[in-house]
Queue: 3 jobs
Job 1
Amino acid sequence: MANIKKLTVLIVLAGVVAAGGCQKPRTKAHREVIAPTSTELRKTELIQLQAKRYGEPDVHYELGKIYQGEGLWDKAITEFRVAKGYNPVHWDAAAAIVKSHLLAGKQDLSLLSAENYINEASYSASSSLLLGKAFQKEFMEEEALECYKQALRIAPDSAGLNKHVGFYYLSKKDYVRAEQYLRRSFEISPSAEVSGALGRLGIAVQIPRKQADKTSGKKLDKMLANSEKKAKKK
């Protein structure tokens, strides 16, 4: 009888050991799955920043982008509107509002918002250009192109603007329009970058002997040059 009890105890102990042995230790990958993601951590940081510095446009914009990525359209739009409210020329926020309406299935509201913001930016070529770039970031090509056309109507003699539009069409493989705007840019202010782009299109260009005095685009060209310098430093 004693032997039977001992045997029973041994069997139970063996079962416990076996069960414990079947439990795999937590792997690093498993720990990473249950740990907060970098996005969640950043969202927490931004919410805390809001409590300290409510009304900081970029904080609201970044938080809105996180909500947009999570499919929380109403929350995203609220943050983008706050960003735009505190910084009326926060064109990234404006374009993000338009895209969020579209993603939420509100196409009519998206179109109306796009029209309003494009009209709002029509007071200057630089604002129209920046809004166009913002739409491009949201992969809204039609709206971006409308902004670029608007900017060209305001500052047709901007070498930098014509170059930007030329490269835009080049990225879309629309070589006919790309040539048109790159040629125009080169005529206004010859540059090696534009010359090289035209050369790759099989077009040889020469520096004009005499250039017309073009003034409508000088201010915008200066802004574009400064923007390109900042981008290269980053």
Note: DSSP finds 13 helices and no strands in the chain.
Job 2
Amino acid sequence: MEAITVAIEAAHKAGEVILRHFRLPQEVHLKGPADLTTQVDQEAEEVIVHTIREALPDHEFLGEEGHTACYNAENLWVIDPLDGTRNYSLGIPWFCVSIALAVKGRAVLGVVYDPVRGETFYAEAGKGAYLNGKEMHCAQKTDMERAVAAVGFLPARHEENPGLALPMLIRLYPMIEATRIMGAAALNLAYVACGRVDISFHDRVSAWDILAGALLIEEARGVATDFAGQPITTASRNIIGASNAAFHKQVLHVAQEVLRGRPCSPIAITSHIGSQADH
């Protein structure tokens, strides 16, 4: 069975688990400041790992709910079983499953599955991007004033908040048409890839939040890099995804302006270079 088929099957099985418990009473735990998890997150990750491991027993796993491996492993599955846990815990139907396969740090396939809407976004490197089997492309807008941006950032009091995305949004706000803050980075990036929004940026994320979505954008003829303009890898900790090079260039310029204009705390420096050190 091809890896992309396995990944889609795993995402759909996880989606079944997620929907089965949606809006039912459940315990919510804090893994860290403003970092929520539920039993559903853990159960969905186990379903994904089990499904993939049956088909590809030699592969390794890096997951938000506890699976750990070398970030530069030969074949590494990077998993967010429930991106948008806070939305999920509040009964807000905006969340997804995100799965990527990375080879030596770079994504070679990605799946983002929205179980509420039954939408499966997927891509393989060099083979294009698809939504429910139909090829998808980024929007073809050329006027920044018509662009819609989907943005994400940590709560103000979060100890790891680098304080970049909000100042970026303030600077970009007069240049664009509208903004959305929806609470699931992987789904934001998928929406760039399918043309529903034009820009998405996040200033403190993990590989499982962005790896699949970045590949979707690239295969849908968009641009995705970190705040330093470098390719997205398993070590990246921030992202700018845009429907075209011109929009990306403008957001990247704003990101670097904000970086130059703020104190260089350790968090800011880490965010800027995307944590490129080996893990």
Note: Residues 160 and 267 are 7 Å apart (CA to CA).
Job 3
Amino acid sequence: MKGKWVLIILGILAVFAIVSIAGNAKTIYVGPSEKYTSIQSAIDNATDGDTIIVRDGIYYEHVKVTKERLTIKSENGSDNCIIDGEGKGIVITLKADRITIEGFTIRNSTIGIKVFSDSNNIRYNNILNNRDSIYLQGSSNNDILHNNISNIWYPEDGYGILLEESSNNNIAYNRIFEKGIGLRIATLSNKNRITHNNISNNWGPAISVIEYSCFNCIEKNNFTNNDRDNSIIDNHSVQAFFVLSFQNHWLRNYWDDWRIILPRPIFGLGMFIPIPSDSSEPPIALPIPWVNFDWFPAMRPYSID
């Protein structure tokens, strides 16, 4: 009985601690007439859990976020608030967990947003004219939602969204177009959920899954007019492909090149390990053609807002 009361008291103290921390969070404004005229200066003077609201305007910056639980958002949406990388570097780098980036146009750089941390929210942004738009490296449990991702100046370059060693991410309701490859899941990126995205008009495939990336769910997306230069496999246009990646689930996607109610094949490369003739030699891994299926492809595109 005594132990029970101890647990109750500890629980009450924990609740008070959380409320106290939340109560200390503040809202910081950024703008030409505010105390902080750059986003980076506001971040540098923020504490964990603060909200940073950015007034309308164009901000020529390369922003690094190293404090946790910050919410950084525009005051009036992405059409009115622009962060410009001036043609180089990374516009926004996330190195702390549980950051929200919301409502910006992020443009003109090598990488739009690069994420090294976990459990972030990237939503309602317009990310354009970057070689790679969103790049997750060793980053998991993120939500990437309702972003418009495109290139205009050099559409044949880069990736819309690139994952490397990044797992358990939710990527949904994004529009990805005019990129080199729409979405690439690479290098041991597992158990990601890719759903309700419009991936269209890319110069390469809509999506590729490579380098032992497994157990990803790719469901209810629209794949239209991708691999426009027909250059990926022997000048034959492909919407999607995989290399050495297994147990990925393709389900109920709309493919504009598939008009029949039968499983839609996705061609790629599996792996075969032959027994060496000389026992002193290690086994040699040789890739061989393999196939996955979208067992129930959609016959009409989804309405995705």
Note: The chain is about 10% helix and 40% strand.
